Amino acid sequence: MTTTTIRPAPDDEPVTVHTTVRAAGAVAYQLTGARLHGAVLIRPDIPDAAPLPSHLSVQFGAEVRTLATVPTDLPVVDGVTTDGWGYAPLHASTGRAQFSIRSTSPQRSVSWQYAPLPTESSQYLHRVLDTLVAQYQALDVDALALAAARASADLRLSRLTHAAILPTTRLLTEVTEELAAAHAAAALLQELSPLRLPPTPAPPHRHRLPAANPETRVTATDDGDWLTCTTCDACTVLIEPGTTLMRLLQAHTEHRCPPTPLAVTAQPPQRHA
User: HSE (CB half, 13 Å, CA atoms) of 161?
Assistant: First the structure.
């Protein structure tokens, strides 16, 4: 543990900070001063899908937090107990810290809302938190980030595997089997149909698949089979042997229906004097 004294601004009351480096890259700051006392915990924040962290998490209170308990070491500024959250970039050169601070006292009008912290107290606490984040960033943050990544690797790998990889793999297997069955059925239908299916091209975008108009129909005439417009019943494209389905549909989409003839407006009968 190391002890330092900070004064975030020249006119601010000084704060004594007891710093303790914990496992997995976490650093606890115990604060003591005329206006402020309590604890803050800063540690790397690592999403499951990211191998290494790029941000810091700022926790109010240094105790382990659960939904059933309220920490007893929350920061108290000017006699008001505060709670909230904060995050900051891992390195000071990549951005600034952001905090959301509130009082733990509920408002009388609405029980689930909390009263805002007085402006002067909030600004003072913001400056203290900025100073603590700067102290953390002045440490060997890359080593702390690596320690946090190693400590949580097993848990994150397990969550990522069971929440994303295995369900997606099962879904992909099911879809692949359905697609194989559809291709097998299409191959049998191909023997009965004059349409020639082209090889399936790669989709132009990973989230968008090519599609054809399902309303297109085929009409048999003495001249052969035609793609037919479902709106005006016009035969648009003659299906010839060896023509791919894609070319047929491209030619079919160039069809334009003739304009609808205007209805004749009935004239009222003329009255003779």
Answer: 6
